[in-house]
Amino acid sequence: MLAAFWWLAFTVLGIWGQSLLPGVDFFAPGMAVSLRWQKPGATIILTLIWVAIQEGAGGLAFGYGILWYAVLFSLLTVGRWLLDPGSFQFQALLGITLGLAHLLLLYLMAVLEMRAFPLGRVLGECLLQALLYPTLWYVADSMFPDRLKKAHEESA
Question: What is the mean pLDDT of the segment spanning 75-102?
Fold first, then answer.
């Protein structure tokens, strides 16, 4: 029950953050925290909810959110084999990579939809994503309840 309340609060704060800074994904750090401390089923459910929010609130055609979270999941999974997922350095590197992924995915979607590509605005969003992701991850990981961390460690 504690996990459900925590993730509900995280999601509400993420929606609020994204309304303040459009183009920056505030849910991405949650996936990293969930993959580290929760069972895979919980991460899948959370990701489906966040994809539905991203796709429903976004101005692009259907598919950006799915691609974004697929890239994020792939980076987190491969990165966990190579580096410590609890290290700030790994998360900072991931933030930079997500900034680049945001640029490439938005460009791909703009080309597919035959839309203009506002490079200046997108570069600003990429920079914000790269800078904010590790900070948001650190805050979310630090605030994740110790009781839930201990429960995960005991079951592992």
Answer: 92
Handedness of CA 36, 10, 102, 132 (dihedral sign): negative
The neighbour count for residue 62, using CB atoms within 10 Å, is 9
CA 47 – CA 9 distance, rounded (Å): 15
Mean pLDDT of 54-77: 81
- Residue 69 near residue 51, CB atoms below 8 Å: yes
Residue whose entry in the numeric block shows the structure tokens 């999941």: 73
Q: How many CB atoms lie within 10 A of CB 59?
A: 9
Over residues 120-146, the pLDDT tens digits come to 898 999 999 999 999 999 999 999 999
What are 144's two structure tokens?
């994740």
Q: Which pTM does this prediction carry?
A: 0.87
Q: Which amino acid is at 8?
A: L
